[in-house]
Amino acid sequence: MPVGYAISYAVGNVKFTALGDRVLVKEDDFRSGYDCTACNKSGRVTCAACGGSGKSKVVTHAKCSDCGGAGNVACAACNGKGALLYIPENSERRPTSGEIVSLGPDCTKLSLGQSVIYSNFAGHAMDIDNIVLRILHESEIYLIVDGHLEMSRLRSKSDVTTI
Ligand SMILES: [Zn+2]
Ligand SMILES: [Zn+2]
């Protein structure tokens, strides 16, 4: 049975409505795996020259010349960005996941709020306010996922079952 009517999704005061057999997916925050651990996402690290005090160790009452008195400097690992935006090619090629937030009236298999997996190269992605929305045809969705994708919790093979 087709959904029969369009279900919209709003970001702030902007509303998105999937048409036809299209779905709108809010992508999972895949960048979290690329957060810079050297600076804990802050983009700044304690200045090594002054140990964070901001004071020169050479000249009394002078500011540390390395950090200009701030006590911290831009993280070298991420260039001060707090995240490593470089995504290895083999990671780009992996499918990605997200949650269905809008459904077109002709969709028949999927429903709102489902977690799904699809190709990283399918559809069109839009960056809006730190979230990524992707427009896909319903047929481009590979899988529906129940539960949360916290693979680190799968400690042993006994946690993986075929239902
Ligand atoms: Zn960093
Ligand atoms: Zn310093």
Description:
The chain has a 6-stranded antiparallel β-sheet, with no helix packed on it. The chain is an all-beta fold. The chain is elongated, with a radius of gyration of 23 Å. Strand 1 (8-11) and strand 2 (14-17) form a beta hairpin. The protein has 2 domains: 8-32 and 90-159, 10 Kd Chaperonin, Protein Cpn10, Chain O, CATH 2.30.33; 36-83, no CATH class. Helices cover 2% and strands 30% of the residues. It binds zinc ion (2 copies). Residues 36, 38-39, 43, 75, 77-78, 82 line the site of one zinc ion (ZN).
CATH topology of the largest domain: 10 Kd Chaperonin, Protein Cpn10, Chain O
Tally of domains: 2
What is the overall pLDDT average?
84
Please identify, by name, the CATH architecture of the largest domain: Roll
Please state the CA-atom Rg, rounded to the nearest Å.
23 Å
The tally of helices reads: 1
Strand content: 25-35%
Structural class comes to mainly beta
The total beta strand count reads: 10
Order of helices and strands: EEEEEHEEEEE
Strand order of the largest sheet: 8-9-3-6-7-10
Biggest sheet architecture: 6 strands, antiparallel
List its salient traits.
six-stranded antiparallel β-sheet, two-stranded antiparallel ribbon, 163 residues, 1 helix, mainly beta, 10 Kd Chaperonin, Protein Cpn10, Chain O, binds zinc ion
Which helices and strands, and how do they pair?
Layout: E1 8-11, E2 14-17, E3 22-27, E4 44-46, E5 72-74, H1 89-92, E6 96-103, E7 115-118, E8 124-128, E9 131-137, E10 141-145
Antiparallel strand pairs: 1-2, 3-6, 3-9, 4-5, 6-7, 7-10, 8-9
Bound molecules: zinc ion (ZN) (2 copies).
One zinc ion (ZN) binds next to loops.
